Amino acid sequence: SYVRPQRMICIIALAAWFAYIVYVRRASPWPETPVLLPEDERKIARMYGVGSIEDAAYVSGKSVPAFRRLSSSSSVLDQRALLDAAFTGGAAERVMEVARRRSSIKSTRSSELSTSE
Q1: Residue 56: what pLDDT?
Q2: Residues whose CB falls within 8 Å of the CB of residue 51, separated by 6 or more in sequence, listed in order
Q3: Of 47, 68, 46, whose CA–CA distance to 57 is shortest?
């Protein structure tokens, strides 16, 4: 009869699914945060008025992994949380702080170059 082979196939399939679940729990084959292309990182950072994804995370008040996870999410609630964080009262001050920091780094580099010549 066909019942016995069908049972064997089901048992093998269940064992394979169980082995796969154990593997996924132990090995964690997926990255903790999504990997973004450099062009995508620049595009996201430009939306916050800064030059890098790290600065954009600072402006939004999130950690870099949390910012990457939220910015690559397709959930409307995650996108809304990022927009809310970007337009809070402290975000403008953080953008200005990043701009000051960047300008001081550039002025320091240019003065080092002029003194070395």
Answers
A1: 87
A2: 42, 45, 102
A3: 68
